[in-house]
């Protein structure tokens, strides 16, 4: 009992007073509800309890308590000034207006290849050279093209391209160079370099944007008359040409042609994406053209033609029914001059005979005498499904709309432009994707001088004879080269990569409508049909290359065997002479002949 009493005495007594700094539970919320004390900052939704031992964790108030906290008047005004003002539909309609195509591409010039000053220079040259080559070929003239670049300031250049084509008539000059989406190639279904009517006018618009200067054109359509000289700018709001000056001048007697000069902000540099490299690759795919290049340094480079005949002229064809979408089919039915749907199918499409037209209409349930303009939308959809079904057999479109380079011409061009030990090429038969005819051509130059044997190969990509220097990773050509198993042809190849070796791989895709990935025409869309044809062309080249490389490896092995034997040839002759009297010179010659006969592969013998 005594021990219990002592223990009870040691218990601390409870203090009746409040701890300094402590607050009653909920007191802060009550004060916040009353608006707080005068001169104090309003509570912001968090409560930090401070004790003698240090700060305790933050306590978040419930939403009901936070809603009671007043917001300062200044904060309310500032928030209101940043919020959207209420507007009516009429007020919003006043801000809406039509956007011209020139305005759109002016703000999005990267879509056309004018990303930066270096690339803009190359794009300008490319568009002008493409137009020059097309004009000369359509007129039946062997192209002679001059490309000249002059530096006016640190970032100011003048690009001039001159050709010996047929020239341009006076009334067409302003629209060709001063209006986007104007040209003669968009509605034609045949192979050509240009397609959209954007390129050269977009280059002039870029020059106008960066320097404020006009495009200068000099064109002479008649050898007996003066040339037409123009200075043109683009009215981007209306997408219309604005003629700054116009005159007739004397220029090169007994000659026709066109010269275009564009002033622009640019950067000139050498390398893989340089103008000189682009023109060198252009000369490979266009062996019938002579191209002269004068860089800012003034040192002229010349790419002479290796072929004195023009390529085969492509013919314009009608669209194939399986290359037409539903919306386009509806539009064609509404705008046709045919009296009945049967004649419409035969006259508007290729490969549609009377028998095929009858089968299509029977499958769609449409009477043959029905007027095209009176066909209901449901019936048009049935006709579209019948066209794309396998029930009705339709021949592939004609291929005379294509103008390939040719197997012999590819190999000859590679021999004249690329110094190597071995060359091979192939030109495939035409195929079809989405109703559009196309063909793939390939070539390989192996043992290229100056290339590292342990580095990746160079891939030259072409679409309608135009080099593609940018966006290789998104291109069908690069994908096809990487998917080809080059190890089967005695070349090393890391997984998912280009093959390694001192080689140049040439791939050309020709089509009446090339499926580019963008308006800048820098890479080909990876359609399965296109990739398949490119791979077949590469595999055919690879088989010849593999035979050559294995033969060379055998020759090297035999040469090594012979060199080992010849190393001890003198000792063998001396040993034989020590055992019997022999003619040392004759024995040595006989042994060397035997060695060469046994290792004949090293001397190129079968």
CATH topological fold name of the largest domain:
Heat Shock Protein 90
Average pLDDT over all residues:
84
Major sheet details: 8 strands, mixed
How many helices does DSSP assign? Answer: 19
Under the CATH scheme, the architecture of the largest domain is 2-Layer Sandwich
**Cα-to-Cα separation, first versus last residue:** 123 Å
Total beta-strand segments:
18
CATH secondary-structure class of the largest domain: Alpha Beta
Sheet with the most strands: spatial strand order: 9-8-7-10-6-5-11-12
Instruction: Note poorly predicted spans.
Output: 1-10, 14-38, 45-52, 601-606
Which structural category fits the helices and strands?
alpha+beta
The percentage helix is 25-40%
Q: In the CATH hierarchy, what is the superfamily of the largest domain?
A: Histidine kinase-like ATPase, C-terminal domain
* Strand percentage: 15-25%
Give the number of domains.
4
How big is the Rg?
A: 39 Å
């Amino acid at each position: 009992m005594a021990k219990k009493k002592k223990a009870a005495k040691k218990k601390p007594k409870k203090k009746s007073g409040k701890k300094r700094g402590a607050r009653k539970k909920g007191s802060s919320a009550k004060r916040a509800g009353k608006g707080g004390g005068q001169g104090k900052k309003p509570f912001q939704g968090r409560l930090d309890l401070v004790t003698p031992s240090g700060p305790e964790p933050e306590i978040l108030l419930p939403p009901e308590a936070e809603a009671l906290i007043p917001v300062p008047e200044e904060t309310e005004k500032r928030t209101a000034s940043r919020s959207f003002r209420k507007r009516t539909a009429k007020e919003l309609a006043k801000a809406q207006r039509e956007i011209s195509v020139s305005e759109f591409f002016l703000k999005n010039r990267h879509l056309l290849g004018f990303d930066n000053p270096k690339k803009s220079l190359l794009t300008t040259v490319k568009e002008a050279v493409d137009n020059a080559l097309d004009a000369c070929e359509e007129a039946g003239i062997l192209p002679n093209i001059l490309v000249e670049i002059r530096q006016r300031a640190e970032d100011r250049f003048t690009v001039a391209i001159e050709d010996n084509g047929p020239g341009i008539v006076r009334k067409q000059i302003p629209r060709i160079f001063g209006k986007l989406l104007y040209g003669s190639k968009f509605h034609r279904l045949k192979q050509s370099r240009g397609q959209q009517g954007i390129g050269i006018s977009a280059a002039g618009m870029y020059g106008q944007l960066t320097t404020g200067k006009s495009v200068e054109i000099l064109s002479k359509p008649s050898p007996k008359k003066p040339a037409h000289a123009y200075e043109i700018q683009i009215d981007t709001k209306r997408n219309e040409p604005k003629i700054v000056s116009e005159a007739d001048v004397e220029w090169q007697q007994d000659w026709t042609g066109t010269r275009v000069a564009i002033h622009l902000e640019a950067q000139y540099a050498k390398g893989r994406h340089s103008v000189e490299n682009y023109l060198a690759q252009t000369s490979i795919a266009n062996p019938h053209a002579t191209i002269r290049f004068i860089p800012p340094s003034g040192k002229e480079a010349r790419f002479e033609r290796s072929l004195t005949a023009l390529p085969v002229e492509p013919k314009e064809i009608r669209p194939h029914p399986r290359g037409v979408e539903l919306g386009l089919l509806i539009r064609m039915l509404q705008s046709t001059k045919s009296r009945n749907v049967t004649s419409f199918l035969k006259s508007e499409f290729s490969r549609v005979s009377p028998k095929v037209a009858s089968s299509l209409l029977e499958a769609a349930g449409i009477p043959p005498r029905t007027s095209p303009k009176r066909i209901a939308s449901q019936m048009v959809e049935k006709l579209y499904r019948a066209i794309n079904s396998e029930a009705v057999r339709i021949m592939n479109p004609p291929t005379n709309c294509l103008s390939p380079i040719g197997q012999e011409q590819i190999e000859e061009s590679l021999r004249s432009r690329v110094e190597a030990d071995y060359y091979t090429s192939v030109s495939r038969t035409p195929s079809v994707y989405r109703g559009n005819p196309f063909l793939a051509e390939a070539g390989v130059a192996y043992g290229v001088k100056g290339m590292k044997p342990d580095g990746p190969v160079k891939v030259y990509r072409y679409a309608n004879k135009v080099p593609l220097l940018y966006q290789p990773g998104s291109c069908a050509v690069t994908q096809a080269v990487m998917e080809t198993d080059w190890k089967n042809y005695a070349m090393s190849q890391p997984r998912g990569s280009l093959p390694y070796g001192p080689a140049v791989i040439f791939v050309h895709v020709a089509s009446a409508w090339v499926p580019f990935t963008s308006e800048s025409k820098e890479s080909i869309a990876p359609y399965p049909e296109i990739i398949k044809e490119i791979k077949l062309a590469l595999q055919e080249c690879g088989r010849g290359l593999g035979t050559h490389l294995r033969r060379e490896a055998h020759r090297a092995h035999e040469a090594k065997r012979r060199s080992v034997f010849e190393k001890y040839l003198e000792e063998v002759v001396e040993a034989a002479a020590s055992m019997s009297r022999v003619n040392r010179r004759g024995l040595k010659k006989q042994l060397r002949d035997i060695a060469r006969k046994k290792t004949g592969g090293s001397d190129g013998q079968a």
